[in-house]
Specification:
Elements lengths: L1 H6 L15 H10 L3 E3 L2 E3 L8 H5 L4 H28 L2 E7 L4 E4 L1 H6 L11 H7 L2 H17 L3 E8 L6 E10 L10 E8 L1 H45 L5 H31 L8 E4 H18 L3 E5 L6 E4 L1 H17 L6 E9 L2 E8 L33 H11 L3 E5 L7 E8 L9 H6 L10 E5 L3 H13 L3 E5 L2 H11 L3 E4 L8 H8 L7 E6 L4 H10 L3 E4 L4 H15 L4
Parallel strand pairs: 9-11, 15-16, 15-17, 17-18, 18-19
Antiparallel strand pairs: 1-2, 3-4, 3-7, 5-6, 6-7, 8-10, 11-12, 12-14, 13-14
Helix pairs in contact: 8-9, 8-14, 10-11, 11-12, 15-16
Length: 581
């Protein structure tokens, strides 16, 4: 049989009940089988297995002894390799007898806990004495779960080292031994490591990330502050200038669009941080798809016209509404249109098509530009990756537009896909979004028309901003739009003016020199009746929005903001709050 099995691809299986067969038979079975299974214990390498030639040979004691010594040397080699691995990983090994609460450990294990020699009475109870009190509950829970289900033990916790009292982080892994069964674990085998350096590096990374967020927020604030008066001044020039000079109108339009573009770049920089930390928040409301797409088309028009592209637009005839953040959705489609314009040679063709498909709307942006190499398509939605198109032409940008678009669409329950047949074959981006049924309480078209209605008044408006140029240009623009406006440049005079004028709307900056805008808002809430409180600020992170809500602001907007958009946002709030001057 031995000869037969060696010459054939076959295996022999023998099953013996140790209680039914004599010990001599069981011994011989173990000697002649390389793999042994005893209950749940699988010994893939049976130490008692002897090759058939050793068993069959007569007078082979020397050979058998040599073989036994070789087995022992192999076992020692395995243990040595294990020790090398433990040393390389700076790991301490342990075996814990749960019934007796005793253990067998390596010296490195005890050194992690601050002992130069093996502790004579180490067990689970002694170990728990080293764990910081605030971490003991979660460590106990990890032990009990492993004992209950017979699964892997894993936890991280802080310990106080014996020799110097230093607090260190450790990570432990363990599992029941082969004889343990679910619900009746008696022994645990495992390893432990000191992970203090890793934890310190993780904390350093978190601190660096926090400082980066603070820097970006400050940078955005400092950039937004000068952009606000520029945009206000352009609006003021546009409203005061009655000239029909087309060149002057074009120049006004260029300045306005470029200021808005700079504002969007600032927002994109902040969005990188929000996305990587999962803190991006949408200001959702019911919006009209047509309004969102036309807003994106209008913003992308200068780039499309500069390249002399033909632009084709196809929108659904019936109104299609979405539940989403109109600004963010417009940002997505603006990015796609700008990419199409940049990566299409002059005189090309760009198409924007939207259609309803059941409970979804499908929006496609196509171009006949340089195309995308198919193997590069999966990389296009990775942060900071540039040069996706065929020919690797670098067209500028931050490399965050498409990843940002993908994340924003996912937050809206939508998706985006890219398609191209390769070099010179153009590109197509397909966006899918869920449709919101029903009609909005106040359509975007109706809101947009309100600032132009003759005789429309918000009432008395108080503008408060320490940036004098920003405050004055905003006030003048609002006055030209038919509003009654007063201006103050710090918190104290703003409170005095509010007590005297009883404004219907207060447009308030946050970073005031004496009292910050949050405190001013809290004090304004005590006045009866109080007007609408609008935060118009360079601080635009989610924590800033949260602080504004807690302080009592009804609306939070970031600079620069078109005064017309500001009026529209305030007017949309009034019916909901039951406030109408």
């Amino acid at each position: 049989l031995n000869s037969l099995f060696r010459s054939r691809k076959a295996a022999g299986f023998c099953v013996y009940d140790t209680k039914a067969w004599p010990a001599s038979v069981v011994r011989d079975v173990l000697r002649t089988h390389p793999i042994a299974v005893v209950g749940d214990l699988v010994c893939k390498r049976n130490l008692y297995f002897e090759r058939p030639d050793l068993i069959d040979q007569v007078g082979s004691a020397e050979s058998q002894v040599s073989w036994m010594l070789a087995q022992l040397r192999e076992l020692q080699a395995q243990e040595a390799r294990l020790q090398v691995a433990l040393e390389a990983g700076q790991l301490g090994s342990w075996e814990l007898d749960l019934d007796a609460d005793t253990s067998v450990r390596s010296l490195r294990h005890d050194r992690i806990f601050g002992y130069d020699h093996l502790h004579p009475h180490w067990g689970r109870a002694v170990f728990m004495q080293h764990v910081l009190p605030e971490d003991r509950d979660q460590v106990d829970a990890a032990f009990e779960q492993a004992l209950k289900d017979g699964g892997t033990l894993h936890f991280e916790c802080r310990i106080r080292r014996h020799n110097d009292g230093a607090v260190r982080w450790i990570e432990a892994y363990g599992r029941p031994d082969a004889e343990s069964r679910k619900g009746s674990v008696r022994r645990l085998l495992g390893i432990v490591s000191d992970i203090t350096e890793r934890k310190e590096l993780e904390q350093a990374l978190r601190d660096a990330d926090r400082r980066k967020d603070e820097f970006l927020a400050t940078l955005a604030h400092e950039l937004r502050n000068p952009l606000a008066p520029i945009l206000n001044a352009v609006q003021l020039m546009h409203l005061k200038n009655n000239s029909a000079d087309p060149q002057l109108k074009r120049v006004h339009g260029i300045i306005e669009r470029q200021v808005q573009h700079l504002g969007r770049l600032v927002d994109d920089l902040l969005d990188v941080s929000r996305i990587t930390t999962g803190r991006i928040v949408l200001q959702k409301e019911r919006v009209n798809l047509r309004t969102v797409l036309l807003s994106a088309v209008e913003a992308s028009q200068p780039l499309i016209e500069a390249a002399r592209h033909a632009f084709l637009l196809s929108l659904p005839q019936e109104p299609v509404h979405l539940e989403g953040d109109a600004t963010r959705l417009a940002q997505v489609f603006l990015n796609l249109l700008n990419n199409a314009a940049k990566y299409t040679p002059a005189g090309g063709r760009i198409e924007l098509e939207a259609l309803r498909d059941g409970d979804q709307v499908v929006v496609r942006v196509k171009d006949n530009g340089v195309g995308i190499l198919p193997e590069r398509i999966p990389d296009m939605f990775q942060m900071f990756v540039q040069g996706h198109r065929s020919g690797e032409r670098v067209q500028g940008g931050l490399g965050i537009g498409l990843p940002l678009a993908k994340k924003l669409l996912e937050l809206h329950g939508g998706s985006i896909e890219a398609y191209s047949q390769g070099r010179g074959a153009g590109s197509e981006f397909t966006v899918r979004l869920p449709v919101a049924e029903g009609r909005p309480a106040l359509s975007e078209e109706a809101v947009k028309s309100l600032p132009d209605e003759e005789g429309f008044r918000l009432g008395r408006i108080l503008v408060v901003d320490d940036n004098i140029e920003a405050a004055d240009t905003l006030a003048e623009t609002l006055e030209l739009l038919g509003q009654e406006v007063s201006v103050r440049y710090d918190g104290r005079t703003a409170l005095e003016a509010a007590a005297q004028l009883r404004p219907d709307v207060v447009i308030l900056d946050i970073g005031l020199p004496d009292i910050d805008g949050y405190e001013v808002a809290r004090q304004l809430q005590l006045m009866k009746p109080r007007g609408l409180l609008v935060a118009l600020t360079g601080w635009g992170q989610e924590k800033d929005r949260q602080l504004a809500r807690e302080a009592g602001f009804d609306l939070h907007r970031t600079k620069p903001l078109d005064p017309r958009e500001l009026l529209m946002a305030v007017m949309a709030l009034q019916p909901r709050l039951g406030h109408r001057p």
